[in-house]
Amino acid sequence: MAIYIATRPEETACIDKQGLQDPKSQRMHNTQNTTPLYLSAPDAVALVRRKGLKNCIAGMAEHIRADFLRWPEFDKSARVANHSKDGVIELMPISDDTTYSFKYVNGHPKNTALGLSTVMAFGVLADVATGAPTFVSELTLTTAMRTAATSALAAQTLARPGSRVMALIGNGAQSEFQALAFQHLVGIDTVRLFDLDPQATAKLVANLSASGLTLVVCASIAEAVQGADIVTTVTADKACATIITADMLQPGMHINAVGGDCPGKTELAAGVLAAAKVFVEFTPQTRIEGDIQQMPADFAVTELWEVLNGTRSGRDSAAQITVFDSVGFALEDFSALRFMHDAALALGYGERLALIPQMADPKNLFGTLLCNQDLAAQPRAERVAA
């Protein structure tokens, strides 16, 4: 692990000249407070390999459960989204009394043709008392894990006990994480697969060939959902689609609707929602972005945190159809960032990031430009060579 706490030599000399009584100790104090831990994508991959994907998803699920159980403590808002014809870029903020977090994330279904991920993300934890950032992390891989963890947590709460068969509609980047989360946290042993792109399904089958899951490739959505206890939809197309229709429903089915997550993007026919008891994360956001955007404003929903803390009921009978209309909420990213931060510190991953200027006098930002002017005028390569 590389820890970048000391500034460059010429900058250290600049601080020394400003007359601190104990320059070294003061620099250490300031930089510890303003150099956040940075977890890069390669470090996140290494961390997950070391801890094990199963353990990471399970750990995130427990962090999410714990934070949902203290829901009233959070300052919550729907995410801010900037939409374009090809996708969306979003900011997702939330905080409690001590910690603030946000996630930057996009959703661009056409990106794969350009060699880019459909979803890319990073996030920040910060100290509420000072505003200082404490953790900066990749969130592309982490978002995949936290989405799967949230889905599995909801299914633990809402699906029929003993559910063993899941249909997985949409076999893209999120699909393997969903399958493994439901295997290890819910007890699914058979996954029935369908995607419009046969190569996506082949990719999933290859990736999960050693997972212990029974993987059944199906020729249609209707075939995939036949006999499924749980149906998970994770399609990416930014369109009002009807992936699941009312005629596909079976008594006791739980639907984990993940792909409908912005205005104008749905996966479930209105008849599915009308026939089910529907659960959401944060109602004001889901009414705009979720499958329930197509329903009347007074369509009844229950927030997941209310079921977790026992104030509202979940599934009312074995025959009832339940829907988790999941759009992704900032609290889940808060929980995932907490998990990754703790794991990075415990296992020694990440490096300190010189994101904030280090100042001997915190009231003199301009002074950082006045020290060692000759050195500062040189390109960095020349300074290093000197």
Describe the structure.
- The chain is α/β, with parallel strands linked by helices and 386 residues long.
- Helices cover 36% and strands 20% of the residues.
- It contains 14 helices and 17 strands.
- The protein has helices at residues 9-17, 23-34, 41-51, 53-68, 140-158, 175-185, 198-207, 221-225, 270-274, 283-289, 304-308, 330-347, 373-377, 380-385; strands at residues 37-39, 80-83, 88-95, 99-107, 121-127, 133-138, 165-169, 190-194, 214-217, 230-233, 240-244, 254-257, 266-268, 277-280, 302-303, 322-325, 351-352.
- The strands form three sheets. Strands 9-8-7-10-12-16-14-15 form an eight-stranded parallel β-sheet.
- The radius of gyration is 24 Å and the shape is globular.
- It starts with 8 loop residues before the first helix and ends with a helix.
What distinguishing features does this structure have?
alpha/beta; 8-stranded parallel β-sheet; 14 helices; 386 residues
